């Protein structure tokens, strides 16, 4: 199994792998290109975004600047909007449903490291120490609104039509139709409308 296959399947992988580094370098170059495009040049932004992410549906808007790790693990549904200064660290898959709004400064993380220091690193024969990493996907449903400055941690799912309050830190999955906020993010009420 290659390091790429390990990464994609959620197994511990070696981030120093040359294939993975090449994929990251490509993404970083495309990301920089995207962020330099004049804001009004919608055609060029779409062209570069289609090269950068795994898939972007119809009528998707991603405001600049926009930051990614690999890009190719990001899948954005139709009519969704990502506001400026968002960071999607897509070492694992990030799925964003259709008709979803993501506020400015939102961070979505998929990389995981062990909590125990002794399990977080491995040491090579030459004495060099490296971080062990694996991934957990993040799934965001249809019709979701994520307020500005929210942080979504690895492995969470945000159900359809949920609302995440600004500044929330989402450590656990949030069910469909919920209004949730806080650090850690907790459900405050449930809505039946739109579901």
TrEMBL record:
GO molecular function: acyltransferase activity
SUPFAM superfamilies assigned to the protein according to its UniProt record, in alphabetical order: Trimeric LpxA-like enzymes
SMART domains: Mac
Protein name: Sugar O-acetyltransferase
Ranges for domain Maltose/galactoside acetyltransferase: 4-58
Entries under InterPro entries matching the protein: Hexapep, Hexapep_transf_CS, Hexapeptide_acetyltransf, Mac_dom, Trimer_LpxA-like_sf
Record-linked Gene3D superfamilies: Hexapeptide repeat proteins
Family membership noted in the UniProt record: Belongs to the transferase hexapeptide repeat family.
Annotated signal sequence range: none
Enzyme class of the recorded protein, top EC level: transferase
Enzyme Commission number(s) of this protein: 2.3.1.-
Keywords: Acyltransferase, Repeat, Transferase
Top-level taxonomic group: Bacteria
């Amino acid at each position: 199994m290659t390091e790429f296959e390990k990464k994609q399947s959620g197994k511990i992988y070696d981030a120093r792998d040359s294939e993975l580094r090449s994929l990251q370098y490509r993404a970083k170059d495309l990301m920089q290109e995207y962020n330099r495009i004049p804001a009004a040049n919608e055609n060029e932004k779409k062209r570069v975004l289609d090269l950068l992410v795994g898939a972007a549906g119809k009528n998707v808007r991603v405001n600049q600047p926009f930051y990614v790790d690999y890009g190719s693990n990001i899948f954005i549904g139709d009519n969704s909007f990502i506001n400026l200064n968002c960071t999607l660290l897509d070492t694992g898959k990030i799925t964003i449903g259709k008709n979803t709004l993501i506020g400015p400064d939102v961070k979505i993380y998929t990389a995981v490291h062990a909590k125990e220091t002794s399990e977080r690193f491995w040491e090579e024969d030459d004495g060099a120490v490296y971080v062990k990493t694996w991934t957990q996907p993040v799934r965001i449903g249809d019709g979701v609104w994520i307020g500005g400055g929210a942080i979504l941690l690895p492995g969470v799912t945000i159900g359809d039509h949920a609302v995440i309050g600004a500044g929330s830190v989402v450590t656990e999955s949030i069910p469909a139709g919920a209004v949730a906020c806080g650090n850690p993010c907790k459900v405050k009420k449930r809505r039946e409308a739109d579901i």
